[in-house]
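TL;DR need C-alpha cells for one chain.
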Amino acid sequence: MPSEFPGFPEAGFRLLKQLKKNNDRDWFRERKSEYQERVERPMEELVLAVAAECRSRQIPLYAKEKNPVMRVYRDVRFSKDKTPFKTHVAAELRRSFRDSEVMVYLHFSPEQSFVAAGVWQPERTLLHAWRNAIASEPQRFEAVAAELEAKKIPLSREYSLSAMPRGFQNYSADSFSQWLKLTSFVASRKLEREACTRPGLVKAAVDFAMAVKPLLQFGWEVENAKPKAAGIRLEQVSRLGRQRA
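>> reply
TL;DR here they are.
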C-alpha cells in the first residue's frame, strides 16, 4: 500500500470553505495558484495513488489522463445558480474514459467527503440494459446487493421510481423488482474529516473499491453486452460529476 500520500491537506479544506464564502471570479483569480497547490495537486496525487493500487489488486481503474481532477469551474449555462466555482473537489476513476460510465468517484468538501461507486442517472439505453441484466440474472444481482448491504454500503434508494418502469411490469411481484425501479446504481461511504487528512486515506479509498468490486464488475459486464444487445451507440456522459457541479 502506498505510504507517500500524507492525506488531503487541512489547508485545502480551509480554502474550499473560503471559496464558498467568496464565490466570485476576482477573489478566485488572486488565489488560483494557492488553489492549485493546496487542492488540485493533492487531489491529483491521491487519485493516481488510488488508481495504481487498485490496478495492483486487479481492479482496472484509471484516472483521467490529462485532467485527473474535475474542473473547479461550474457549467452555469442551464442552472439558476450562477456562482462560477464548485466548492468541493472531485475526481473519477474508470476502466476507460472512452466507453464506460461505471466509476469510482471521490468527493471532498468541508461539509462532507465521501467515495462512491456505480453509475449515476445513465442515459436511457444503458439504464434499460442494467434492468435487462438484473431481470436475466436476478439471483446474481440480489447477491451483489446483499453483499453491499452486509458491508454497510448498500445501494442507494434515493433515485427510485414509484411504479415499475415500462416493459418490466410483469416483474412487479418479484423480490428483485425494487432494483428494477432504480434509475441509478450507486453505493457510497462517508469519509470523516479526520480520516481525510491522514496517510490512511489511500487505503480507505482502495478498501472501498475492493468492497464494491462486485457492483463494478456487474456494471462492466452490462456495458460490454449493451452494444450487441441494443445496437445503439452509448452516450458518454459523466452524469455523476455533472450532478456534483
